[in-house]
Design goal:
The complex is a heterodimer of chains A (237) and B (405). Chain A is built from seven helices and ten strands. Chain A has helices at 52-59, 82-92, 108-117, 123-136, 152-164, 182-197, 209-212; strands spanning 7-19, 25-37, 41-45, 67-72, 75-76, 93-96, 170-174, 202-206, 217-222, 225-231. In chain A, the strands form two sheets. In chain A, strands 6-7-8-3-9-10 form a six-stranded mixed sheet. The mean pLDDT of chain A is 92. Helices cover 55% and strands 19% of the residues of chain B. The model of chain B has no long low-confidence stretch (mean pLDDT 88). Classes of the chains: A alpha/beta (237), B alpha+beta (405). Chain A binds chain B through residues 57, 60, 62-63, 82-83, 86-87, 89-91, 95, 97, 101, 103, 105-106, 114-115, 117-120, 162, 166, and chain B through 1, 4, 8, 11, 15, 311-312, 314-325, 398-399, 402.
């Protein structure tokens, strides 16, 4: 009997309400519950205003749910302090952003190894691991260049290398191809698919159907609720 | 961790070299100005001390009473202290020496040279009382004073102007046509506080001035008299004794005003010193305005920097930077700027003050005070101007910051 895969994310009855000044409130996420297992490649889709960004922020430990439970690698994080959340982001999560968010005046190696600074890793080890990660995303030998000297697709690879460097439990990619042309988008998505094959858990937020096609599982959010949760190939809107 | 924060801070500020340099310049100028002003103040204080030391501080100065008419202070009244009055003070307790002068300014002539000099008719004790030293030759004696011998001791300026490279000893110069023999020369004293040349002086027996230079008006009266006291803490007591003695000798009734004035050198020193101190505090205060402006410059730059780097801050936070780290990094950036600015300002201030010292031919001290001031400026300015921007960076919500365009 094979061991059941590790649960990376578990969301239980999660709600998020924004309270506006003047007493008004807006319920953005309504009683969400799902699990994401190690090695999965999940696409979260939804129209703008559906609550998918809010969900992403909570899953990425940038925000907290109003009620409900959230367990990351079986640890409860729903009530964690700011400092604890920062530590979780630095040690268990990798982020890939739509606009790359690289520091333009720093070398590619510095950019890739940035998360390790906050983990107290030495300069030497940071650089070695950065070079190793760059190799993994196909940017061997680029460590001393500046982000301004390479293309957008390469910049996103740098960002992916940065997301990988702390050996995260999960990578969150928020519209990672939003700023790229179709051909480069395909390259980046193929890189994600490759990384997923190597066992890396990926959660992808997108509104593009063909980008979501690279994922195996789809969670569709509509009006703050899960409209669909199942294999990508079985979803036909 | 501190090393990493400092390194990140250093890389961040060196990414904007021009902006950092210009911001730093504000602090450089501010610190240099304060250091210069402190040096100027201390130089003035030192000069004051030097001048008073050269005159001797255990000194009581007696002169005519001040003329007060209708509550308004006028000039000096007519001379009221006689040679005998002064000599009678010699025997008072705790008096080390007494002397007096009758002063006049005349043209001194030697050969074809002539020069306007200050002539002080005095007694041998004048040298002791006013800390003059004989360089060559001998001083005149009490006997010379009694007999009104036309002997003179001459200052360095007089030597230069009248004798040039000749040895003046034994030569005869003329004052108002009267012959005076040079029996000694005085060591140089330099300029006094008012910038007057102390070496443009001729000392001669008081009686000689009376008999040969000043005519017969109140012939036995002094212009100024000096009493040297044995110890500084006995000054007040001796002043009281002098007052008592002189009132008795002048037959002044009880309740009537003195017809003479008594000034304690120690009090005058205190007065001038406190003026000097106020002056240097004032100068430094004015100079420190530029420091305030400089630190506003840092704060402004840091606030702009935080706004500009909002996305970077959001990214750093998303990648695991604790709030404390972000705040410390921004604080470190302003501290680095203020430390470097203060250091360069200190060096600049010291160098400029030394250059000024060479130009004005004064000893300008390099004081530990300047170092203390610039170090505390570095810390204070760095923290005060950095704390607000750093807190702003710390408080940024990573979600908002990442969305910032």
């Amino acid at each position: 009997m094979t061991k059941s895969p590790e649960i990376v994310i578990e969301v239980k009855d999660l709600c998020k309400t924004y309270f506006m000044s003047g007493g008004a409130s807006q319920v953005v996420l309504k009683h969400l519950s799902f699990k994401i297992y190690s090695g999965e490649f999940v696409a979260i889709m939804g129209h703008s205003g559906s609550g998918k960004s809010t969900l992403m922020n909570i899953l990425g430990c940038l925000d907290r749910p109003t009620t409900g439970g959230y367990f990351l690698a079986e640890e409860p994080v729903a009530q964690a302090t700011d400092a604890e959340l920062a530590d979780i982001r630095g040690s268990k999560i990798g982020f890939v952003f739509q606009n790359f968010n690289l520091m333009m005046k720093r070398t590619i190696a510095d950019n890739v190894s940035l998360p390790l600074i906050y983990q107290g890793v030495s300069d030497h080890e940071r650089r070695e691991r950065a070079i190793e990660m760059l190799k993994r995303v196909g940017l061997e030998g680029y460590e001393n260049r500046l982000p301004t000297q390479i293309s957008g697709g390469m910049q996103q690879r740098v960002a992916i290398a940065r997301a990988l460097i702390n050996n995260p439990k999960i990578i969150f990619a928020d519209e990672p191809t939003g700023n790229l042309d179709t051909r480069t988008s395909d390259e980046i998505m193929n890189l994600f698919a490759d990384l997923n094959k190597q066992g890396i858990t990926i959660v992808l937020v997108t509104h593009e159907e063909d980008v979501a096609d690279y994922a195996k599982r789809l969670i569709k959010i509509t009006d703050g609720q899960v409209e669909y949760d199942g294999p990508r190939k079985d979803y036909h809107p | 961790m501190i090393y990493q924060i400092l390194k990140e801070a250093w890389i961040s500020i060196s990414a904007y070299k021009m902006r950092t340099f210009l911001t730093m310049l504000g602090i450089v100028i501010g610190v240099a100005a304060v250091v210069l002003m402190v040096a100027a103040g201390q130089t003035v204080q030192n000069e004051i001390t030097k001048t008073f030391d050269s005159m001797g501080t255990n000194l009581i100065i007696l002169g005519p009473a001040e003329v007060v008419s209708g509550g308004v202070r006028g000039g000096r009244g007519r001379p009221s202290i006689t040679f005998d009055d002064v000599e009678s003070l010699r025997n008072l307790k705790d008096v080390e020496a007494v002397s007096y002068i009758v002063a006049t300014a005349v043209q001194a002539v030697y050969g074809s040279n002539n020069y306007g000099v200050n002539v002080r008719g005095t007694t041998p004790d004048f040298l002791k009382v006013n800390n003059w030293e004989i360089e060559t030759g001998v001083p005149f004696t009490e006997k010379d004073v009694k007999t009104g011998k036309p002997y003179v001791l001459i200052g360095q300026t007089v030597i230069d102007e009248l004798f040039g490279l000749q040895n003046p000893l034994g030569k005869v110069l003329r004052l108002k046509g009267q012959p005076f023999t040079v029996i000694g020369t005085l060591k140089a004293k330099g300029d006094n506080l008012m910038g007057q040349d102390e070496d443009n002086v001729i000392l001669t027996p008081a009686t000689a001035v009376r008999q040969r230079l000043r005519g017969s008006y109140r012939p036995n009266y002094t212009d100024v008299a000096f009493v040297k006291v044995t110890e500084e803490n006995k000054m007040e007591m001796v002043a009281k004794r002098i007052e008592y003695q002189l009132r008795a000798r002048h037959h002044i009734k009880e309740g009537a005003d003195n017809d003479f004035s008594i000034n304690l050198m120690t009090e005058m020193v205190e007065k001038v010193r406190s003026i000097g101190l106020i002056l240097s505090i004032l100068l430094s205060a004015i100079a420190s305005i530029s420091l305030v402006v400089g630190s506003i410059g840092i704060m402004n730059m840091m606030l702009v920097s935080v706004t500009e780097r909002t996305r970077e801050i959001g990214t750093r936070k998303a990648l695991g930077a604790p709030n404390r780290w972000i705040m410390t990094q921004f604080l470190a950036e302003s501290l680095i700027i203020s430390f470097m600015g203060s250091f360069v300002g200190l060096i600049l201030g010291v160098v400029l003050s030394q250059i000024a010292g060479v130009i004005y031919d004064k000893d300008v001290p390099i004081s530990i005070l300047s170092v203390i001031i610039s170090a505390s400026v570095a810390v204070l300015v760095g923290v005060i101007s950095g704390i607000m921007p750093a807190r702003k960076a710390m408080k940024l919500d990573p979600i908002e910051a990442l969305r910032y365009q």
